[in-house]
Design a protein that fits this description.
The chain is α/β, with parallel strands linked by helices. The chain has helices spanning 14-23, 31-38, 44-53, 66-75, 77-100, 135-146, 150-159, 163-168, 180-201, and strands spanning 2-7, 28-30, 108-112, 127-132, 172-175. The longest helix is centred in the middle third of the chain and has 24 residues, at 77-100. The mean pLDDT is 92.
């Protein structure tokens, strides 16, 4: 099966792109979804995080307070690396498990990984698809979606790989600086291309 790595900076529109690929029948494995599942109450990964960062990272229902943890790790880069050391190997292992269990419906699948390049996970995929958007667009979308300040959004963007570096790593690019119809047209064109590539790979 042809494996496409979908990535892009925060607020670039990765989730919108992934959803449209799904409507076309493409299996999508989402690293963020896996990460959220790993930190559900009762999961061993949550216990490991709380042991390292403290019980004040839980809300009054015993769930991970993601906003508080995010603020903590972006103020302290070492703690961000500690969190990544806990989460990333577990997320990667689950991605690999899900790939192994996929049936090749359309010949290819997408792995949506925001930190694909930062984590050095290109070895998991045959092609890298980058969703790109201007920095100001990323900030506007992120603050509106997540209810965070501009400063927090800028800190997240700064912590990620530079835009030019991400684009240099891309085999394919979707430019998400227009309307939804333009975005969907790019997805559909790539869908046809990936199906052709997958067919040749068989």
């Amino acid at each position: 099966m042809l494996i496409i790595g979908l990535t892009g900076g925060i607020g670039s529109g990765k989730s919108t792109v992934a959803r449209h690929f799904e409507t076309l029948g493409v299996p999508v494995i989402d690293a963020d979804d896996i990460g959220r599942q790993l930190v559900e109450p009762g999961q061993p990964t949550l216990a490991t995080i709380i042991k390292h960062f403290g019980s004040n990272m839980l809300d009054d229902k015993g769930r991970l307070n993601r906003a508080r943890l995010r603020e903590q790790v972006f103020r302290h880069p070492k703690q961000r690396r500690d969190l990544e050391a806990i989460l990333h190997p577990r997320i990667r292992a689950e991605i690999q498990r899900r790939i192994a269990n996929l049936s090749p419906v359309c010949g290819y699948c997408l792995i949506s990984v925001p930190l694909l390049i930062e984590s050095g996970w290109q070895d998991l995929v045959q092609r890298v698809l980058v969703v790109d958007a201007p920095r100001e667009t990323q900030i506007r979308r992120t603050t509106a979606r997540d209810g965070i300040t501009r400063r927090q959004a800028e800190a997240i963007i700064t912590s990620q790989v530079e835009r030019d570096t991400r684009l240099q790593a891309a085999d394919d690019v979707i430019h998400n600086d227009g309307d939804l119809a333009a975005l969907q047209a790019q997805v559909e064109a790539l869908h046809q291309r990936y199906r052709q590539l997958a067919e040749r790979q068989r």
